[in-house]
Prior knowledge:
Layout: H1 6-22, E1 32-35, H2 39-42, H3 44-53, E2 56-59, H4 69-86, H5 92-108, H6 120-130
Amino acid sequence: MHAAEPGLVRTALDMSLWRRDRHGTPVTAGLVHHCDAGSQYTSFTFTAHLIEAGIDASIGTVGDALDNALMESTIGLYKTEIIKRDGPWRSLAQVELATEEWVDWYNTSRLHSAIGYVPPDEYEATFYAQHQPREAVGVNN
Length: 141
């Protein structure tokens, strides 16, 4: 497995910040970015970008399997629900499109047991309808 490119990691962060702003739930003080100790996350430019966005960095310890348990579980679901089920794949473009669609579904629409079997977007919308967001910290659009 290859490490993610630093530019890709920053783009993913920027997309998530943009999405929160677009939905009227900008980053607030106290947001923490959890990651492993990969070089793309510990680079000066990425760390500076987190600081600029008002996000605290939390880096897991090297070799600690518990730090990656959630990610490993998510990757397992992805492989089972998309890669193995819908393969064989004819092109990288097919895999990329299927991955984008699955990640969007997983992050926004899937029923989540920990939040009462409602989709994350619905749960978040209900939460923010009931709570006034705290003052936003510096986020570049």
